[in-house]
Specification:
- By secondary structure, this protein is an alpha+beta fold.
- The protein starts with a helix and ends with a helix.
- Strand 6 and strand 7 form a beta hairpin.
- It has a six-stranded mixed β-sheet with strand order 8-1-2-11-10-9. It has a five-stranded mixed β-sheet with strand order 3-6-7-5-4.
- It contains five helices and eleven strands.
């Protein structure tokens, strides 16, 4: 019950920050998340609802990064561990209760017509272009779903993830092992 109240409070704060950004002219462009060792930026137009960690029901004979399916607010969603998919290295799920409390499932926007949610280790808030000091386009060998690579004032590098392009990648759609 406390987790549900905390999630509602977080979503309320996020909604009020989005509304404040619209009225003050500051454009929040991305939802910043951390997954494994990576820092990622999801375009707000591609990201959907954010859910607390819900253990998915495993599906046999699937890729290690596909954790299974979960019932999220009455809808059946495939759950992908972002860190494992992005690196190709199967990652361990959060072992401690504190780590699990910070984990979130970020659903794709329903307009993308993919019932999928990405498991991230931590939400890092909203970011706009003003939060970064440099950016570089994806390299020639980068996956098609990679956007620009941004650097913030602290020197941290954030990879933009085009969720629409990701949702159309054959590797992402082929969950069978």
């Amino acid at each position: 019950m406390a987790n549900r109240d905390a999630l509602r409070a977080f979503q309320s704060r996020l909604a009020s920050r989005l509304q404040a950004a619209r009225t003050t002219g500051v454009a929040a462009t991305w939802l910043a998340v951390e997954a494994g060792e990576g820092k990622y930026l999801f375009p707000l137009g591609h990201a959907g609802e954010i859910f607390p960690w819900t253990p998915p029901q495993p599906v046999p004979y699937t890729e290690p990064w596909f954790l299974g399916v979960a019932n999220l607010r009455g809808g059946l969603y495939g759950v992908v561990q972002l860190s494992a998919f992005a690196t190709g290295v199967p990652g361990a799920l959060a072992a401690t209760e504190a780590a699990r409390i910070q984990s979130r499932l970020v659903a794709f926007n329903e307009l993308l017509e993919v019932n999928c949610a990405l498991l991230v280790d931590r939400l890092a808030g909203l970011r706009g272009a003003e939060a970064f000091t440099a950016s570089e386009p994806p390299g020639a060998e980068a996956p098609a779903w990679h956007g620009h690579l941004f650097t913030d004032a602290a020197g941290e590098r954030w990879q933009e993830v085009n969720l629409q392009a990701l949702s159309q990648q054959p590797q992402f759609l082929s969950i069978g092992a």
